[in-house]
Amino acid sequence: xxxxxxxxxxxxxxxxxxxxxxxxxxxxxxxxxxxxxxxxxxxxxxxxxxxxxxxxxxxxxxxxxxxxxxxxxxxxxxxxxxxxxxxxxxxxxxxxxxxxxxxxxxxxxxxxxxxxxxxxxxxxxxxxxxxxxxxxxxxxxxxxxxxxxxxxxxxxxxxxxxxxxxxxxxxxx
Length: 173
Known about the structure:
mainly beta, 5-stranded mixed beta sheet, 4-stranded antiparallel beta sheet, 11 strands, globular
């Protein structure tokens, strides 16, 4: 789908991923798919390592043409039991949260190569939308690779891009 212009950066398709920690049980459903099918009925402990989010990415692609042109085919449905035994339920309306379809990033326009930016009007970025349930807190993040003019790791010409995990929303129940 063609974008309206290269700035601000926008998206129309996305990938989705979800994880849960510190729960007695958890079910995360998006687009009729369970993202806790193998782990939802089992207690979940802490994250495997402190910096686990550094490499967190989504693997379930969502293309608007598969859903009547809609960016989001529906809400994310959550049912979980926190460590204290309290049962929770939530519906996450991604369409309302990302109403303007803006890519969340920390770069200024002048830090991005003009040619790459112009290409985004023809082929918009497809970010990862990531949901985390951690005990009583639900967080929604976005991760999107955005090209940069400068190397992010000095001396590494393959590091001309940022793929930062950006917090979009969080709520403690």
